[in-house]
C-alpha cells in the first residue's frame, strides 16, 4: 500500500495534479460575519475576491484539533499509512494542532504509521513540495524516504509575492496606515518572500507594474536553479492579466513555458487581498 499524502487548503495545486497523485486537502475555515465556510469547499476564490472588492471583510481560522483527530483516526483504523504536510507554522497554528492530534491518535493506535511535517511553505510553494512528495509516494517510496524528501524540498522552496492594494497588509498589521495610503497613491507595491521561519518579509518594492514584474523576474533569476527544467507555479487573487504579463516576460528570461497558473487559495487571499500575485520555484534542483 502506498503512503497517502494529506495537506491543507492553504496548498495551491492544479486540480488535475491533486487527482493524479490522490492528494487529500483538509480545509481551513473562512469567516464572514457570523457565517463560517470550509475553505475551497463552501467558498471559492472567485466568490471571495469578488465580495472583497465590494468591501466584504473576512477572517480565517486554522484547522481545529478535533478535525485532525477525526480524520487521523479514520485512517489509523483503516491501517492506511499517511503523511500530513502542513503549511507554515510561521503563519498559522495548524501544524501545532496536527502534532497534538498525531500524539493522541498514536496513543490509541500505537502501530499506526503517521508523519506530520511543517513545510514552512504556503500556497504554490506548499503545492510544489506536495507534488514532489506525492509522486514519490505513488512510486513506492517508504515513509523514511518521504520524510527526507519533504525536508529537502521544504529547505529549497522559494516564494515571491506582491500585492496591488496595501490596505490588506495594513489590516493584517504588516504596514502602518500612512505607508499603506501613500503606497497606494503612488502605486508602490512591495516584493515579499518567505523566510527560513516560514514568515513573510519584505525584500524590495517597485513603483508601477513594469518595474514590479522586472524585479520579480530578477529575484527569481538570482535565487532559482535550472529554471528551464522546473515547473513554476503562479497564483493570483483575481488578477489573471498580471499573471499573464509575468509569464510573458519570465518565459523569455527563463527559457521555458512550463508555468501553472492558479487562483490563490482563499485562506491566504483574505490577508493579501484581491490583486495579489505569487510565484513559486526551487533554489536547488536534483
Any overview of this molecule?
α3 (65-77) runs parallel beside α4 (94-108), α5 (123-138) runs antiparallel to α6 and α9 packs across α10 (240-254). The chain folds into two domains: 4-156, Rossmann fold; 157-282, Hypothetical Protein Tm841, Chain: A,domain 3 (2-Layer Sandwich), CATH 3.30.1180.10. It has a six-stranded mixed sheet, sandwiched between helices. It has a four-stranded parallel sheet with strand order 2-1-6-7, sandwiched between helices. The model has no long low-confidence stretch (mean pLDDT 90). It is globular, with a radius of gyration of 19 Å. The protein contains eleven helices and 13 strands. The chain has 286 residues and is of the alpha/beta class. A hairpin with a 5-residue loop joins β9 and β10 (200-207).
What would you say about this model in short?
This is DegV family protein. May bind long-chain fatty acids, such as palmitate, and may play a role in lipid transport or fatty acid metabolism. The chain is of the alpha/beta class and about 290 residues long.
